[in-house]
Amino acid sequence: MADSFLLTDEEVCDITGYQKPARQMDALGRFGITAHLNARNKVVVSRRHAEDVLAGKTSQNAVLGPNLDWMES
């Protein structure tokens, strides 16, 4: 089901190696993949985000915030 917007439970399990949501969340966090738990205690992950992070297209070390470089001029 690669056309889905979200990863399947099986895909999350394959990526993390875990079946329990708490362990999956920890593993995904270590990979730099943002994930959420839904009301049914299932891990929810954007397919595009996961693919980008795993392919190295997303900087996991990016610092988010305003660019204040102009103040140093």
Q: Per DSSP, what share of the residues sits in E-state strands of 2 or more residues? A: 5-15%
Radius of gyration: 15 Å
Regarding quaternary structure, what we see is: single chain
DSSP strand count = 2
Biggest sheet strand line-up: 1-2
**SSE topology string:** HHEEH
- Share of residues in helices: 25-40%
Residue ranges: pLDDT <50 for 5 or more in a row? none
Globular, elongated, flat, extended or rod-shaped: what is the shape?
elongated
Number of helices: 3
Give the biggest beta sheet.
2 strands, antiparallel
The averaged pLDDT comes out at 87
Which structural class do you get from the secondary structure elements? mainly alpha
Protein name: DUF4224 domain-containing protein
Organism: Parendozoicomonas haliclonae
InterPro entries: DUF4224
Domain DUF4224: 6-50
